[in-house]
């Protein structure tokens, strides 16, 4: 159950009876839920991790008429982590996070509420909720979006309360967990100045944060291309291997 009593649908994926850790997997906007990431989820599970992947509010099999706002992703993840930790049928293992786009913003921002998290991978993410509104707004109404942003911030403050101020940089600053920031140089959904470049400029001296920039994998990093197109297959396999290596070193 999430913050307003809406039931979220989630699945625990595993390939063996033993596991090194539990990865809580947060999906991006627009894909409908976690099913768009089954190639990555399968790869992580096949390499010794349990993966708890859920559909956020208003997505796929979860309840809710819609997302309602970007901070809802942080709220749902907060509740999902607490569920995994309290559910008796799940083993007591290190909690790891993986997020893409909206999910990347969520896995970083949620760290202020869950200091026990032991490692985070954030792919194609942005810093704060109004960033993605600004990015999309500039495409539609150019600089006119800046007149609307104060109203959006007020709406979020009323709708989401303390979660409205959640942002990736503050979450990272509150955590001691190692973090991997990943983005492709040709990302057309989240420009690098809102993502990789921003995080690098702020966190490049932080020994706990590592950066991976790839090329020609777009915003989705080839998740949907894995084992379909040979070029994407090789790049994605290398990237997925780096995910596994990062988690193994972190626990």
TrEMBL record:
Gene3D superfamilies: alpha/beta hydrolase. Pfam families: Hydrolase_4. Residues 18-128 form the Serine aminopeptidase S33 domain. Coiled coil: none annotated. PANTHER family: PHOSPHOLIPASE-RELATED. This is Lysophospholipase.
